[in-house]
Specification:
about 0% strand; mainly alpha; 2 domains
Length: about 200
């Protein structure tokens, strides 16, 4: 391997052609990791040459709203639509007392999910934790409901789904690489530091 093997070349063709600037930021943050990665490179490892080794690393660098995060985004959008219809139905209830009580219950949930989709699409650093807390609260409500009424398939499916999302947000490499920004669009250093721990 030549003397420049320890340096990361960030001038990829996709960036020269006007590629994704967010991914470029991510690659820059991983410059040190890649440098160490290449320093440990052995020509005999997996039969890969240096360029193939770098390409493999870049492919492994999962980032952006993709993979399972797409399903999560769809789920949040569907929840917002469902809650909007629910709030509308509540407003049409003739009994003002019942209507007010249900509105107090459902309107905050709608606002929370609208806020969630905003911070998710902006890839803000605290989205995973907030969505985990939301799912945890939902999970507690579902489990409490089990002791009140008879559980059905959809309720059990919702419980399993909430548990899966909580674990996914904690363990996912893509999540750690994606949600690293502040409101201003700048990278949040503490969140970005977690990408090197994955």
């Amino acid at each position: 391997m030549d003397d420049n093997s320890g340096k990361l070349d960030l001038d990829y063709e996709e960036y020269e052609a006007g590629g994704d600037p967010e991914k470029e930021k991510m690659m820059k943050m991983h410059e040190q990791d890649v440098q160490e990665f290449l320093e440990e490179y052995d020509d005999s490892d997996d039969g890969l040459d240096e360029q193939e080794y770098k390409q493999k690393y870049e492919k492994d660098l999962l980032t952006g709203i993709g993979g399972w995060l797409v399903l999560m985004l769809i789920g949040i959008c569907l929840t917002i639509i469902l809650m909007m219809f629910t709030v509308l139905a509540v407003l049409l209830i003739p009994n003002s007392l019942v209507s007010s009580a249900l509105l107090v219950m459902f309107l905050p949930i709608l606002l929370i999910y609208i806020f969630l989709i905003v911070i998710m699409t902006k890839k803000l650093w605290f989205f995973p934790r907030m969505y985990q807390i939301t799912n945890l609260a939902y999970l507690i409500i579902l489990i409490a409901t089990l002791f009140i009424g008879k559980p059905d398939f959809m309720m059990l499916l919702s419980i399993v789904s909430a548990i899966i999302w909580i674990i996914y947000l904690q363990m996912s490499k893509r999540v750690k690489n994606t949600f690293i920004y502040r409101w201003s669009g700048e990278v949040y250093e503490k969140a970005a530091a977690k990408t090197s721990e994955v």
